[in-house]
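Narrative summary of target 7.
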Amino acid sequence: MKDKTLIVISRHPGKQKKTFEDKLVKLLSGIDDGELLIIPHLYYLKNNFAVYEKLLPRDEVLFASWLYKRAAEWALKKELNPGKEPAIIHFNLAELNTPQKAAADIKKALKTTVKGRTKILDLSKTPVVERWYPVIDHSRCNNCGECLEFCLFGVFSKNRKKVSVEDPGKCKPGCPACSRVCARGAIIFPHYFDDKKICGADEGAK
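Modeled conformation, tokenized:
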């Protein structure tokens, strides 16, 4: 029997979007062909958070968050095994304006008209800690190591010729300097909204 499509809603780090999110959950609660997982803010999740176990056995995941698509994509991929991750369709809730629009787009992607009762699992009250760290877009990164040489705090490492974020907790909050020295625009700081390239709003490949 084929697994039902998993819909994930990543809540905003503050409380100001709670009404939007609650309405969206209600609008998605009458779909028979879906399972709904509500989690804390994606960017604040620690490694090995339970959400990753929920994603792995799925063929497809519809993922809605308050991050730009590229930022959300690579924040997720850093915890998923390459080649084994599900197909993930991302929705930026900030760009969808209303819960009605968000629900309509998600339902369209779900490709179902069957009504019923959605299975809902709410993990959003799991405690998380505010974080600031770089996310690497490995579709752009050529592993040159310039960020590794530039960073004074030991955030990056290079193993088997691949650059990775070794110790995100060492990153200086509010500092996006390493992303500015990356010639390929591969380093994302999802909360640096002053610069669209740095926060992952630019979708074009380098």
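The chain has two domains: 5-122, 135-188.
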